[in-house]
What we know:
- The chain is of the alpha/beta class.
- It has one domain: Rossmann fold, CATH 3.40.50.450.
- The protein has 6 helices and 7 strands.
- The strands form 2 sheets. It has a 5-stranded parallel β-sheet, sandwiched between helices. It has a two-stranded antiparallel sheet with strand order 5-6.
- β3, α3 and β4 form a beta-alpha-beta unit.
- The chain is globular, with a radius of gyration of 18 Å.
Amino acid sequence: MTLAASPRRPRIYLAGFDVFRLDAVEHGARLVAACAEHGFEGVYPLDTQVPADLDGPRQAAWIYRANIDAIRGADIVMANVDDFRGPGEPDSGTAFEIGFAAALGKEIWAYTQDPGTLIERVPAQSGPQGRVCERGFLVEDFGLPKNLMIACAARIVQGDAHACLDALARGRLD
């Protein structure tokens, strides 16, 4: 009797600034477990260990290559695009990973718990050309929760990682 091979679970690369949390490894394990509960294989950037004998720049290069390889091997990128170090702005590394995944034609899902649109959340004053932030730049107003390059590349779910996984699982069945 021949056993049929079980289908491979879709692999999700878990992008986001969560790697900077003080409990980053534990948080990553919870995200990977949540992926498994939804029928996916989660891949967290801290799943692999950086060789200890590398100096700072070499560690950075190693991490970059490992994350690029993980994105290449993923079917889906799911990104935490909550505001990171300023209102309206997700982590720049996460934005890069979203762009890289888009260039590869990967399916991209993102989640944010930040309420409202970008124009509603970025502190700005009205000017003759539109809303201007405190640094003197126009704030885009397309009614989107994030910069258009992220909002147009990803399906953005309002909520946390679990809400995004719920939507992703439903969306893949539609």
